[in-house]
């Protein structure tokens, strides 16, 4: 089993780089990207806290209130507070502006009704960063009227139903909300500013370390075995090492841009396209070289990577969509 995809449910962690609580003031030491990369390179289980590290903590620093930072960042720093992403809906994936989950103003807060889907790890997480419509669609301005909320996953009216993968794994969920109450202090950022905020969050997501390093333990295992002569040497390995090195450097450069509050949407999209394609190609090369004589531990690792391969280029926005984004920003369409 590829440990990288495992969920850790308890325990503390020590990493180089991350979000630090210095006497109640939050700041970034190294970056969440560094922290995630270090654990990813070691093949350690990161799925439980990668959403918090990669996109929620920097989004809280960018748009959160002081109260929200104090409520969530210490738990994220300790690796004890897990977040899920509530963007996709049954009829709204690539076209997020078509989201139909709606939030209606009530006394002291909002009531939210709708369905989110493909919600990774909602069954293991504490809170959901949810995108909802707070005013009706304006066909002239489709991206207006969206807002974000931090929703406790044990809220009354919220149901989490598993969606199992073909291999039996439970990663995805459908999250249904039936008039779930969210108090005013859990409104994230500004009402009506959801599109801008979610686009910024996706910038953090798309350039995150696991967009380049998900299958790094497979690459390392392949190199070891080819080095020892257990598998035949293949020049494709060298090409993949070069590609993963380039993608990793680009991911770190984008993290630096984001940390300096500079725009990096297009660069993040490029990292996601190049990084996730490389991750998948690593899985394929290893699969090509594995047979009945390969040790069972490595074979399992490769099989897990192959099982997860289709998701690499889909999650966080499909590579087809991202190529369109890149082309548009380069003035090619
Ligand atoms: C492993 C994994 C984890 C995920 N985790 C989460 C999560 O935690 N939270 C969450 O909210 N979502 C999550 N998702 C959902 C993911 O964000 C969506 O699957 C993705 O945005 C695509 O949306 P869709 O599935 O509705 O496909 P669609 O938008 O219906 O697209 C179907 C196909 O059509 C193509 N397509 C659509 N529009 C265009 C276009 N304009 N130009 C060219 N091609 C187009 C797409 O590229 C795709 O191949 C996850 C997905 C995966 C695979």
Q: Quickly count the helices.
A: 10
* CATH hierarchy: architecture of the largest domain: Up-down Bundle
> Helix/strand/pairing class, anyone?
alpha+beta
CATH class of the largest domain: Mainly Alpha
- Secondary structure: helix percent: 40-55%
The average pLDDT value, as a whole number, equals 88
Spell out the CATH superfamily of the largest domain. Answer: Butyryl-CoA Dehydrogenase, subunit A, domain 3
Sheet with the most strands? 4 strands, mixed
| Share of β-strand residues | 15-25%
The CATH topology name of the largest domain reads Butyryl-CoA Dehydrogenase, subunit A, domain 3
Unreliable runs: 1-31
Global morphology = globular
Number of strands: 10
**For the largest beta sheet, what order do the strands appear in spatially?**
3-6-7-10
Following the backbone from N to C, one meets helices and strands in this order, namely EEHHHEEEEEEEEHHHHHHH
Gyration radius from CA atoms, angstroms: 20 Å
Bound molecules: flavin-adenine dinucleotide
How far from one another are the termini?
43 Å
Number of domains: 3
Question: What this model shows, in words?
Answer:
The chain is α+β, with helices and mostly antiparallel strands. It folds into three domains: 3-81, no CATH class; 85-192, Butyryl-CoA Dehydrogenase, subunit A, domain 2 (Beta Barrel); 207-329, Butyryl-CoA Dehydrogenase, subunit A, domain 3. The chain is 44% helix and 19% strand. The chain has helices spanning 32-41, 47-63, 66-77, 194-206, 210-213, 216-227, 235-259, 265-289, 296-312, 319-329, and strands at residues 18-22, 25-29, 83-86, 102-106, 109-116, 127-133, 146-152, 158-164, 170-183, 187-188. A four-stranded mixed sheet has the order 3-6-7-10, covered by helices on one side. Strands 4-5-9-8 form a four-stranded antiparallel sheet, with no helix packed on it. The longest helix has 25 residues, at 235-259. Flavin-adenine dinucleotide binds at residues 84-88, 93-94, 118-120, 311, 314-315, 317-318, 320-321, 324. InterPro entries: Acyl-CoA_DH_CS (IPR006089), Acyl-CoA_Oxase/DH_mid-dom (IPR006091), Acyl-CoA_Oxase/DH_mid-dom_sf (IPR046373), AcylCo_DH/oxidase_C (IPR009075), AcylCoA_DH/oxidase_NM_dom_sf (IPR009100), Mycobact_Acyl-CoA_DH (IPR052161). Belongs to the acyl-CoA dehydrogenase family. Keywords: FAD, Flavoprotein, Oxidoreductase. One of its GO terms (cellular component) is plasma membrane.
